[in-house]
Design goal:
InterPro entries: Cbl-dep_enz_cat, Glu_mut_E, Glu_mut_E_C_dom_sf. With 493 residues, the protein is α/β, with parallel strands linked by helices. It has two domains: 15-359, TIM Barrel (Alpha-Beta Barrel); 380-483, Glutamate mutase, C-terminal domain (Alpha-Beta Complex). Helices cover 51% and strands 8% of the residues. Helix 14 (306-322) links the parallel strand 7 (293-296) and strand 8 (327-329). The radius of gyration is 22 Å and the shape is globular.
């Protein structure tokens, strides 16, 4: 009997079962044959500390620094080398990424192979990322050797088993992704249960490296649905994904939060996320898990105007620094147009780095509005997580699946058919993201009223029906609107 035939549980995958799972997984594509755990461990141990992400993240937190990391991937080895060099040297990135292509994310490796061949023939990338499984371990190590920074895999996938094996064996010391967040963000048909199982494999793999003396950095990706996500929803998922990873043995687990663009709310969210994740890890007996928080540049629709986009890039760096984030994932002024050039990507990194410098010593701790917002987030998150644990009889994996089935957990505008998608967020008059319709999520009455009161004020101010989804829809597009609509000229207002 394989593990997939057994009932879902949070429990650590047994050694013999995991060994069998690894053999089956590595046999799925020819490059898997080059993965050798002992040899890969030796490769990681030979890397200098400044190229290993786990100790780099620990040092950043200890020193109160905010590291910069972009996204970036193209379809050929030489192109990816050039991109990574540009991000490292011109962009001054602290962490250098490899973003995989869509075929790889969906395990369509034969089609990725055809994309590589066409990219080579055309002399330009015909893929929207790097097909690391097709290129294999040796090529991955060439990429790691190309830069003097730690490297991280950004895969955008609910199916990380083979990319994780190739990436870790190739010397990448970080991997972004989680069973809940990526499954509800990126894929329609895959069940929450299967998404959790897939990432239990990856987390067990990371823990296996740690058992052999190599600490890797696993990271939860927040939400990449391209819509507004209230902090409490993102943090609930951070808590649950972190608990699932810890159960498999992960001890270095980053958390990501997409920016709301309100300075108080974003700073409060970063602090609350760090506190709540540690609180629940401690409750379940995991007292040695390192959980740095990463802030993501705006994940919603971007304006086409370069000046507006430049403001968003710079503001995103300031928000991350003000909130005490350990790192920030950056974007560029080309965001509205698609994949940025290497030069634009590097420019976005430098803009962000300068903003971090300017905001480096500022914090909001003690500000009454900040403390109120942080307490509010705690009040929103705890009842839901407690209910999830109750539904699972203490088992996080089972509780998560049952909570999505019951609507206790919900994600706005998720493409996954196993998510109800009834919850609707909207911005209030002050720019905070609030919950317009909680769907079936069992928030306490005082939480529901707190959000409703603030959104009623905006509805009345704008003359719209509070009971309609109009505020939610307007909030999706708000940041991408032309400046003259966001702040009309005083003479025409």
């Amino acid at each position: 009997m394989t593990r997939s035939d057994t009932a879902l549980t949070q429990e650590r995958i047994p050694d013999d079962a995991f060994a069998a799972m690894r053999r089956d997984n590595l046999a799925r594509w020819p490059t898997g044959a080059a993965v050798d755990l002992a040899e890969a461990v030796a490769f990681h141990q030979a890397l200098p500390e400044h190229k290993r992400l786990a100790p780099v993240m620990r040092r950043a937190v200890a020193e109160g620094r905010c590291l910069t990391q972009p996204r970036g991937g193209v379809g050929t080895l030489e192109g990816q080398k050039a991109l990574m060099r540009t991000l490292d040297r011109d962009g001054m990135a602290d962490i250098v990424p490899l973003t995989t292509d869509s075929y790889t994310r969906n395990e369509r490796f034969a089609e990725a192979e055809a994309g590589v061949a066409e990219s080579e023939r055309q002399g330009r990338s015909m893929l929207n990322g790097f097909p690391i499984v097709n290129y294999g371990v040796a090529a991955a190590r060439e990429l790691v050797a190309e830069v003097e920074k730690p490297t991280i895999l950004l895969t955008g996938t609910s199916m990380p088993k083979l990319t994780g094996e190739i990436g870790f064996a190739g010397g990448f010391s970080g991997y972004l992704g989680s069973g809940i967040a990526y499954t509800v963000s990126y894929i329609k048909e895959l069940s929450i249960e299967d998404g959790i199982r897939n990432y239990q494999y990856l987390d067990r793999l990371a823990a296996l490296y740690q058992e052999h003396g190599v600490e890797l950095h696993r990271r939860q990706p927040g939400f990449l649905t391209g819509t507004n996500i209230p902090p409490c929803i993102a943090i609930m998922t951070c808590v649950l994904d972190a608990l699932l990873a810890a159960a498999q043995g992960v001890r270095n687990y980053g958390l990501e939060l997409g920016q709301c663009l309100h300075v108080v709310q974003d700073a409060a969210a970063i602090a609350a996320c760090r506190e709540l994740v540690q609180e629940y890890l401690g409750r379940l007996g995991y007292t040695d898990v390192f959980t740095p928080v990463t802030s993501l540049h705006w994940m919603g629709a971007w304006p086409y105007d370069d000046a507006q986009s430049a403001a968003l890039v710079s503001w995103g760096g300031a928000l991350a620094a003000l909130g005490g984030a350990a790192s920030v994932t950056t974007k560029s002024v080309h965001e509205a147009y698609g994949i940025p050039t290497a030069e634009a990507n590097a420019e976005g990194l430098r803009m962000t780095r300068m903003a971090i410098y300017l905001a480096r010593s500022l914090r909001l701790d003690g500000l009454p509005e900040y403390e109120r917002e942080k307490a509010q987030i705690h009040a929103e998150v705890r009842p839901i997580i407690d209910r999830v644990l109750e539904l699972g009889d203490g088992d996080v994996a089972r509780g998560t699946v049952r909570a999505f089935e019951a609507g206790v957990l919900d994600i706005p505008w998720s493409p996954n058919r196993h998510v109800r998608g009834r919850l609707l967020p909207a911005r209030d008059d002050a720019g905070y993201l609030r919950i317009l319709d909680p769907g079936d999520m069992p928030f306490p009455a005082e939480v529901r009223e707190y959000h409703a009161e603030r959104l009623r004020d905006r509805a009345a101010h704008e003359g719209v029906d509070f009971d309609s989804p109009e505020l939610a829809i307007a909030s999706v597009y708000e940041i991408s609107e032309e400046l003259r609509r966001l702040l009309p000229d005083a003479r025409s207002a």
